[in-house]
Request: fold
Amino acid sequence: MFKLHNVFDSRHYRRLSSVQKEELKEARDKVHQAQQKEPERLREHLETFNDAVIAIIITIIVLQIQPAFKASQYLEFLGNIVIFIIAFFIIADFWYDLHIAFSYFIFKPDKITAICDFCLLATLSLLPVMTKWIMMRDSAFAVTNFGIVYFIAQILKVFVQYFGAKPLMRSSQVMNIMMVKTSVHRIILVFLLTLFLILLSLVVPKVAMFLFHLFHF
Reply:
């Protein structure tokens, strides 16, 4: 990437006229101001991107519901609506958690936070596929794969919250320790509960699917 401050140290700069030097100084000041505002702009863009992607994910899921063309298909149609509602609230909970994180402690996200957020959205984007799989065949294998994607998304959400809050934690060692402990505890809790639900899905997949929403962390 081009570094504007390197120009001021070059021989070419010393050959510039006073007017040209002043113009270059103004350009450097503008770049410096833009760099200071960049974390805030990234925060706004991430929030907007999260809103857009999650809205698309929910829209795709509802489009997976096939209408009942025959009376014999009506119960399956109602079952698919229930599956959609469960998936809807699971994804909506992810949106809400991200909203809270960006509202209360992610003020200056960096590139690592953005990457974790992108990975989270990419993982959530798989939920329409998992949901369609369950709608077509609510087998233990389908619900288990839904649970695996759900688990990965939960872990990535913790990463977004942790790395997003790191700039805030630098000013407080106590807060840093508390955030680390909270993140570790949440990962352990997510792992244990998700493992329980995955094992439960091998026996009663419909109940496990419902509990994925009920036990949303």
Summary: The chain has one domain: 39-214. Residues 18-62 form the longest helix (45 residues). Residues 68 and 74 are 5 Å apart (CA to CA). The two ends are 41 Å apart (CA to CA).
